[in-house]
Automatic annotation (TrEMBL):
PANTHER family for the chain: E3 UBIQUITIN LIGASE RNF121 (PTHR13407:SF1), RNF121 PROTEIN (PTHR13407)
Organism: Poecilia formosa (Amazon molly)
RING-type domain span: 231-281
Membrane topology: Multi-pass membrane protein
Protein name: Ring finger protein 121
Transmembrane segments: 59-77, 84-100, 106-125, 146-173
GO terms (BP aspect): ERAD pathway; neuronal action potential; protein localization to plasma membrane; regulation of ERAD pathway; thigmotaxis
Any GO MF annotation of the entry: zinc ion binding
SUPFAM superfamilies registered for this protein in UniProt: RING/U-box
Lineage per the UniProt record: Eukaryota, Metazoa, Chordata, Craniata, Vertebrata
Record keywords: Membrane, Metal-binding, Transmembrane, Transmembrane helix, Zinc, Zinc-finger
Length: 332
């Protein structure tokens, strides 16, 4: 270990218990190890904030009050104007991480964000065209369902890496704990972020396509009468009977007796977040639809992504607002 040092900041002396004592601030910081540099910064932070307990309590109070008020405002906004809330949330989900990652020069994330944005922009463009091409609904749901499954797998793998690191399994492979934890947290972030963003884009596209096809209307009656052999999600004929086993996909019948392509109704319910019949709006029983226990985690994962949207989209905005209040009031 390098020579022992003391740090004196604003008249407060911090002894870090090394073997020999030099004069305060009489050492070359560049020669210190990363751990010793962290100790120096830690000592400076304690010295800087010493005696500011009342100010810190005021800042915590401002944070708590702002979080409560912001939550109430967001809930009321979502209930009264869901369309504008969803659009603003989607925009923030897309842009806020871009700002921070650009500022921090996280090029790996920026590369994946650019690829995702290009493909999703093309898919969204196809979904919003009128008249709607007959192949577009299947293309949209296949892309977002694929993205959903990939994000799910990456998120689970990242979470597993984090748990293995906590239990010390990384040491078996001679991997440093900080490296393993960084890798796991990064994968977890990628999976959750693209999972949330993909579901929001899918919901927007589902609304546009279903309204264009004409068998679904967010408010009011559908503009078309649904035949028995037509899928109300994509508007294409159903070629496989409900009782038959399809080569590529099966046909699924809801409790309201309306039939759909399996991929269409799964995309509509899981990815598009529409837990109702696209035609008559009867509530879909997801437990009955996903009777296979291996498929149920996809439903729970979707609910988790909905909850995380608040943390990714609105939490940075609220924290920035709190910092603005503290700056105006002269609190540091």
């Amino acid at each position: 270990m390098a020579g022992v040092f003391e740090v004196e900041v604003d008249g407060v002396e911090h002894d870090h218990g090394l073997e020999q004592h030099n004069e305060p601030n009489q050492f070359d910081v560049s020669k210190l190890s990363p751990e010793e540099k962290w100790r120096v910064e830690h000592a400076k932070m304690h010295a800087k904030h010493k005696g500011h307990e009342a100010m810190h309590a005021e800042m915590v109070l401002i944070l708590i009050v702002t979080l409560v008020v912001a939550q109430l405002v967001l809930v009321q906004w979502k209930q009264r104007h869901p369309k504008s809330y969803n659009l603003v949330t989607l925009f923030q989900m897309w842009v806020v991480p871009l700002y921070f990652t650009t500022k921090l020069h996280w090029w790996r994330f920026l590369s994946t964000w650019f690829i995702f944005s290009v493909i999703t922009a093309y898919i969204s463009f196809r979904a919003t065209r009128k008249p709607l091409a007959c192949t577009t609904p299947r293309l949209v749901y296949k892309w977002f369902l694929l993205l959903y499954k990939i994000s799910y797998a990456i998120g689970i793998f990242g979470y597993s890496v984090v748990m293995f690191t906590l239990f010390g399994i990384n040491l078996i492979f001679r991997i440093k704990p900080e490296d393993a934890m960084d890798f796991g947290v990064s994968l977890l972030f990628y999976g959750l972020y693209y999972g949330v963003l993909g579901r929001d884009f899918a919901e927007m596209c589902a609304d546009f396509m279903a309204s264009t096809v004409g068998y679904y209307s967010a408010s009011g009656m559908p503009t078309k009468h649904l035949s028995d052999n037509i899928c109300a999600v994509c508007g294409q004929p159903i070629l496989v009977d409900v009782s038959e086993e399809g080569i590529i996909e099966n046909t699924y019948r809801l409790s309201c007796n309306h039939v759909f392509h399996e991929f269409c109704i799964r995309g509509w319910c899981i990815v598009g977040k529409k837990q109702m019949c696209p035609y008559c709006k009867e509530k879909v029983d997801l437990k009955r639809m996903f009777s296979n226990p291996w498929e149920r985690p996809h439903v729970m994962y979707g609910q988790l992504l909905d909850w995380l949207r608040y943390l990714v989209a609105w939490q940075p905005v609220i924290i920035g607002f709190v910092q603005g209040i503290n700056y105006v009031l002269g609190l540091e």
